[in-house]
Amino acid sequence: MRLLLLLVVGVIGSGYVGAQTPGEVTYPYPVQYLSLTIESQPVQMAYMDVKPARPNGQTALLLHGKNFNGFYWANVVRWLSDRGYRVVVPDQVGWGKSSHPNIHYSFHLLADNTRQLLDKLKIDRVVVLAHSMGGMLGTRFTLMFPDRVSRLVLENPIGLEDYKTFVPYQSIDAQYKKEVKATYESYKQYQQTYYPVWKPEYEALVKAQASDLDKPNFEEIAWANALTYQMIYEQPVVYEFDRIRVPTLLIIGQEDRTVVGKALLPKDQQAKYGQYPELGKQTARRIQQSKLVELPGVGHIPHIQTPELYVKALSEFLP
């Protein structure tokens, strides 16, 4: 039985192939498509499938965070491929080169879409490595398909607290009004919160996200963005970490303060939440077979800010 490494993570910066023209992002490897039917709608799930020169019999599948897509994995794909891993990198339905249907989005749905992709590729057993929103998806995938997961890596995952217990509710329509008014600067301002210190090389990821602004179906994308915000808000996984039964690595940048919906909080409450140093410890205590790696001075995306520390932690955990 082949081992799949399911990497559900955020971004690698220096290997990124950026936006070439407005509305277009060039992915680092050929893109293929899986046809699915969701709520009676035909949709396409885009993915890259990279074969190593010298296979080690294991496979890596990379899943992205909320503000990113599969293209940003170039350095991780290269690192894994050099070590013999097959690497499969999907865009979840609702993101990137995949369809953006108007459906009920759920982590259960995304996990099952991912399962269908693995079935198509005849991949049986997985290690899940998850970053940001991918941490919620990776957790749900692990809980839904425990027999297919051998290891789990959570890198600064969101969802370590239940946002709906302290972030004020807003309707999907209200969220859509924000999404449809997005600008390059608003995307950049949000991405700047991911790092203790902003560097010019991070700009490429802003350009990639902002490429959606010039697409003819941007309103459709904005609506999907609003629906998936609501998915994160309404579908916590934090209460189920103690059900995880696989060895789990937590890689936690200690300067991260990400909170989904943080701008809706009063200023005097914003610093109370998103405290990743404590959230990482709490989560590690709840997962039975867990190892916690704390990275001082590192923000929301360790593998782009300090790729050498990310790779070191990963190297010591992966089979």
From TrEMBL:
Q: Please give the Gene3D superfamilies that the UniProt record associates with this protein.
A: alpha/beta hydrolase
How is this protein annotated for GO cellular component? membrane
Sections of the chain in a coiled coil: none
Q: Protease: is it a keyword of this entry?
A: no
Record InterPro entries: AB_hydrolase_1 (IPR000073), AB_hydrolase_fold (IPR029058), AB_hydrolase_sf (IPR050266), Epox_hydrolase-like (IPR000639)
Q: Name one GO molecular function term.
A: hydrolase activity
Alphabetized UniProt keyword annotations: Hydrolase
Q: Where is the AB hydrolase-1 domain?
A: 61-305
Task: Return the SUPFAM superfamilies for the record.
Answer: alpha/beta-Hydrolases
Q: Which Pfam families match?
A: Abhydrolase_1
Query: What is the name of this protein?
Result: Alpha/beta hydrolase fold protein
Q: Which organism is it from?
A: Fibrisoma limi BUZ 3
